[in-house]
Amino acid sequence: LVPQTKTGIALLYDEVSENAYDIRLKLTKEVLTIQKQDVVCVSGSDHSANHRTVKLRRQPVGGLGLSIKGGAEHKVPVVISKIFKDQAADQTGMLFIGDAIIQVNGINVESATHEEVVHLLRNAGDEVTITVQYLREAPSFLKLPLGSPGPSSDHSSGASSPLFDSGLHLNGNSTNTAPSSPSSPIANEPKYEKRWLDALSVPLSMARISRYKTGTDKLRSNAFEVLALDGVSTGILQLYTAQESADWLRAISTNISDLTLQNMKMANKCCSPSDQVIHMGWVNERLEGTDSSQLYKFKFLALKGSSFYIFSTPPVSTLDWVRAEKIYNLCDVIFKIHKLWLADDCWLQANLYLGIHQDYDFEDQRPYCFSVLVGHGKSHYFNVELGNELAVWEKSFQRAIFLEVQRTGSKTYVCSWQGDTLCFTVDFALGFTCFDSKTKNVLWRFKFSQLKGSSDDGKTRVKLLFQNLDTKQIETKELEFQDLTAVLHCIHSFIAAKVASVDPVFMDSQSIARKYMYSN
């Protein structure tokens, strides 16, 4: 993975006010920074850059040289929306598009309507003193240009509405017919510039991305949120096009994955070769509510050594590994892809390959879902945000399970048949062996290749169908287990690992998620 660096303009959406604000995104290898525009003092004595008081001389041609938008009736201050080049406002060097007007000739206008401010400015005489403060979160419906000062050819005042500019480059009620001296900056006056300033930095190590509206299965349109390990959120980042949104998601996801890889390498330095972290990352787990409503919760999964871990927060130190919500042995679980929004034949292939005919009544709207089937017929149902994450989880589970099978070599389960207590062993080298638990006498033994089918009652009893190599006849062996699903999962894992060791290309060709990713 090559870490991405990127900058671009986006909107920050406020769900409470339902307004969106212009922001700039800056992505580095380790941090996503949100920048907001502000006016800063770059030289001279710094009167508070927050409030600037500027004197304007109304000119016979061009008036005050600016236009305004907004007003209290729309729950926004009146802001400067245009500054005309080389006219009064521009010549001061102290006014910017996006400045909110606080006072006009000492009169506070913070809660004034659009028309009131227009009237005040037009009747304020030849010399107008205005106090302004840059509005860092100007709602996007004001449609303010990001550049400043903005060259504009539109000199019409238009209608007085917050969505139209009221032009104050007109003469107003000027009594002075002689050309007035320009409103120019004085030598010792402070100089101001409009700049993008860092407002929030979100570290990407162990961060997570969310594309869904909280508590729903509804995908946000061209929008997402990035949450840091400590829960700090970027807020909802709205991009202008689907392509931009996809590019940003890919870039941020790449950097998170790269940092996760570094964290894994650090963790693995402290672990024995048989207890290495193979993969870890954030997913959404679906929780079944009492009213059967679907609710997702962020969970952090890890494949490490012989175990599959489910955490509510990522393990940061070595001690954290013991506080997982759930820990399962990898030989006892099965990874199953549920949903890719693929054509029906791929569904069929997935079911055939996985050999699991469990009926799930999932009317889920989320793509990129997988489940991990665990003992006693239970399962965990997960969803990831991006398709490539699904492919990585599929490959990682496969690898982790195969390594665990090869390390373990064999697993023995206590079982019974017709009142006798027996032992059933699945062995990577030898296949299946059944022996008497007391006398240790071997009752029967078959290779993996001899298993031709199986059926079970869904509770404790299983029938295994083996082909006798000499007679070619099918022999049926029946056994009863306390945790039948764990045994069936173990058989599945050992056979899959055996196939992979003999023919890895075949296993790769069966990868549902990767096949989908490459075709896209």
Automatic annotation (TrEMBL):
GO terms for molecular function: actin binding; structural molecule activity. The keyword Ribosomal protein does not apply. Residues 146-163 have a biased composition (Low complexity). Residues 146-188 are annotated as: Disordered. Residues 53-136 form the PDZ domain. InterPro entries: PDZ, PDZ_sf, PH-like_dom_sf, Syntrophin, Syntrophin_4th. Belongs to the syntrophin family. This is SNTG2 protein. It comes from Crypturellus soui. The gene is Sntg2.
